[in-house]
Amino acid sequence: MGIIYRLALVLAIIGAINWGLIGLFQFDLVATLFGGQETFLSRTVYSLVGLSGLLCIPLLFRAFEEEDAQTVNNRETNSYTNMNYQTEFGEENDFTEEQRKRALELYSNDDDRNNNNTTNS
């Protein structure tokens, strides 16, 4: 997103906050800061907020491109944007019969070593 659109969003947010203050508390922050609604500065701020609102309209219909949605490959920032519904162990590998036999031999050798260590103690 370009600097113009970011500035337009900031001004639109300022305008939204001002309208919220007017609606909730009947307090016009822009008029208070710049000496009333009729001053040149207040009218300039109102005009800029209005133009920025018009400039933000295309953002509603814009398709976000890949570079706009940068995802980082760590769990903290990517956990809500890239849901992974697999188990914590991931996918299981398909072992060949030879790999299964080798794994069973290693497992049984480890058990034998552990049993020998406990009986010798």
Question: TL;DR?
Answer:
65% of the residues lie in helices and 0% in strands. With 121 residues, it is mainly alpha-helical.
Give the key terms.
rod-shaped; mainly alpha; about 120 residues
Label the overall shape.
rod-shaped
Total strands: the figure is 0
Helical proportion, percent range = 55-70%
Structural class: mainly alpha
List the helices and strands in order: HHHHH
Provide a count of the helices.
Answer: 5
Which spans have pLDDT < 50 for at least 5 consecutive residues?
A: none
DSSP strand content = under 5%
- Sketch the major β-sheet: none
Radius of gyration: 32 Å
Give the rounded overall mean pLDDT. 78
Q: Give the termini distance in whole angstroms.
A: 69 Å
Describe this structure as you would to a colleague.
There is one protein chain. With 121 residues, the chain is an all-alpha fold. It has a domain at 3-62. The protein is built from 5 helices and no strands. The chain has helices spanning 3-25, 29-34, 40-61, 75-78, 97-120. α1 packs across α3 (40-61). The longest helix is centred in the last third of the chain and has 24 residues, at 97-120. It is rod-shaped. The mean pLDDT is 78.
Question: How is this fold's topology laid out?
Answer:
Elements: H1 3-25, H2 29-34, H3 40-61, H4 75-78, H5 97-120
Helix pairs in contact: 1-3
Pfam family, one: DUF378
Region (Disordered): 75-121
Biased composition (Polar residues): 75-87
